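It is worth pausing here to work through a concrete case rather than discussing structure prediction in the abstract. The textbook approach is simple: state the sequence, then state the predicted structure, then interpret. We follow exactly that order.
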Amino acid sequence: MLDDTIAEIRNLRVEFQTKDGPVLGVEDVSFEVRPGETVCVVGESGSGKSVSSLSLMRLVEYGGGKIAGGHLLFNRADGEQIDLAETPASLMRTIRGNEIGMIFQEPMTALNPVFTVGRQLTEGLRLHKKLSRKEAQARALELLRQVRIPEPERRLTQYPHELSGGMRQRVVIAMALACEPRLLIADEPTTALDVTIQAEILALMDRLKRETGTAVMFITHDMAVVAQMADRVVVMFRGNKVEEGAVEEIFANPKHDYTRALLAAVPRLGEMSGTDYPRPMRLLGQGDKQADPILGTGEPLLEVRNLVTRFPVKGGMLRKTVANVHAVEDVSFTVNKGETLSLVGESGCGKSSVGRSLLRLVEPQSGEIRLAGKDVMAQTPDGLRNMRRDMQMIFQDPFASLNPQMRLMEQVAEPLRNFGIGSRSEMQDKVASLFDRVELPRSFLRRYPHELSGGQRQRIAIARALALNPSLIVADEAVSALDVSVQAQVLNLMMELQADLGLSYLFISHDMAVVERVSHHVGVMYLGRLVEIGPRRAVFENPQHPYTQALMQAVPVADPTLRKEEKDLNFKPIPSPIHPIGHEPEASKYQEVAPGHHVLITDCGY
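Step two, the predicted structure:
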């Protein structure tokens, strides 16, 4: 191991014991990380990239894994070199969180639900840095400001469940940065974040790396993030390293077939410029035939007018409503038959609340929602139940939306059973044909959700949403947690279903490249309001609202020659959406800048 290397993985082999014998998680993997360098480890789910990082932290043992061979060399701050694979548990406790920091992928499981954010942030500082309670509190506040959390003083006293997914992820990042580690391992740290916050977190990590010489091992499946962050790239496939090289070399001249397939599946911002209609991606190995564009009909299916959704904030001994969260404020749009309207914006901008309000999974305060001419707001519970046959939802987290105790066959058949559609054998035929539709083998019918990968689970969620032949599907971040190749397949599947069945989608996402690929129309949301809405081409190629322009500026591009500089990012802090009872904001007023392209002229705080 060279003196200028902070960590080196040498011939690592990790095994997991199962009922059917040992399974290899990683086989003979070697690479190193130097000070001030970012090494991105890329690959699909199950390729072994997270196993490599958990081995360095010696956490793989707590997940049923065993380091069966190889060395994990680490140069400590005092110059001592140790092999982490053989380090006693007591020494590992002083290294973890202090000299090696880790940002975990799933923020809800990385945070303790029974302790406040403040207590969890100060714990490592008091343990490793021996700070007093007051000093640790001040440092925690500074860290929350660094990761751009609004109202940081208030957040310190809150519990994880009171924060949005994006905010929780920022708290986890702040915890990992707290002790200024020599090596920072980031496992998919920006998967749950919006482009603006992602851009700032990446810039923050980049600045930290330059200022402190921290080495960063960055695990991701987002090739645009790799292009933005990496100095070197390690490509993994089925537990093996298949390619390693400088980031420019990997993107410009990939040698391995798998690397080429991975790069071909990346939707790139600007790919659809000059075209008016979405079309499925052309994936490697599918020939040169270009799919037909999806034209849509221009005939309205869903009409939303002046939608307002607010959530009460309780306080005091009697838990009275003391204020309201203005989640959706005076939003109007139309979704046409066979077309896709995408809603984009940051965490907490109200886009998911819009989707849930349409199905009345949350009750709107006011507004009008019409589906195929029928008034959704006027429906009785029975009427609403029948209307939901026409409106279905695909949720962000397929694991949370599937029942872990039911076989997949029963879960996809459940909507049919609920509405008494077909005999038992007809139901089985319908479910089998739905599995064919979403390209899952029929042998999966008897499996349980935990036996599938993330992408396969999301396909089950799509199959279940299609069971009742709906006319509208609300897809809430339906592909954000998937690997690029699986994401490309699922997006193509959704678009082919749209072309075949005439489906309409309300597509909620923060991934601008995906939105550009699938949309007919795009609405940009900020703090509960639509600040810009229009045809996809108009919004992407000629953004008018300053917030839309900042959003486009923040999107990382899958090309290392087009990296964003920190000075290019000019975001303002997001004001609080909480207002006292009786506060009535002014109505949304729009200016039409081109046919169908409307921009908000009411002051929305940006």
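Step three, interpretation. The chain has 21 helices and 23 strands. The chain has two domains: 7-264, 300-390+468-600.
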